[in-house]
Amino acid sequence: MSQRLVVTEEALYEVLSFLVSSAHLCVVEPRLYGTFRLTDAACRLIGFALESGQLEDDRFLREFKEHAETGKFLIMTDEDAYFEFLEDATRKMAREMKARALS
Question: Domain limits of the chain?
Answer without folding.
Answer: 9-102
